[in-house]
Design a protein that fits this description.
73% of the residues lie in helices and 0% in strands. It has five helices and no strands. It is mostly helical and 110 residues long. Keywords: Membrane, Transmembrane, Transmembrane helix.
Length: 110
C-alpha cells in the first residue's frame, strides 16, 4: 500500500466499511499486523454491514418509500460517521449501536 504504516492502517479501516466483502478483506489483512485501530473499525464496519442487511430485509417488506428513505438516510449517516472517524484516525464508536458491535464482535482482532 503506502510506506507510512499509519496511512495503511487508515486505508484498511476505511475498507472495513465498504460492504461485507470489504470487512472480510480488512479482517484477513489485519491478522498479520494485529493493529487495534484496524480491529476496532473492523468490528464497527462488520456490524454496520450485517445490521444493514438484516434490517434492510425487513424494511423491504413494507413497500413504502418513506420508510425506505428513512432507513437509507439513517444507515448512510452511520456509515459516513464511521468512515470519517477512520479517515481522521480516531477510534469513535458509531452512535447508538457502536458499543454493541464492539461487545458482540470482541473476538475480532485478538
Amino acid at each position: 500500500m503506502t510506506n507510512n504504516p499509519q496511512e495503511e492502517n487508515k486505508t484498511l479501516a476505511v475498507v472495513s466499511y465498504l460492504t461485507i466483502i470489504g470487512s472480510v478483506i480488512a479482517i484477513i489483512m489485519n491478522n498479520e499486523k494485529k493493529s487495534q485501530f484496524i480491529a476496532f473499525h473492523n468490528r464497527q464496519g462488520l456490524g454496520l454491514c450485517l445490521m444493514y442487511m438484516i434490517i434492510g430485509y425487513f424494511i423491504s417488506q413494507f413497500d413504502n418509500w418513506q420508510i425506505s428513505t428513512a432507513f437509507w438516510v439513517g444507515m448512510g449517516l452511520l456509515f459516513f460517521y464511521g468512515i470519517i472517524s477512520a479517515i481522521n484516525g480516531k477510534m469513535q464508536t458509531v452512535p447508538l449501536v457502536g458499543a454493541f458491535f464492539q461487545k458482540i464482535f470482541s473476538s475480532i482482532g485478538k
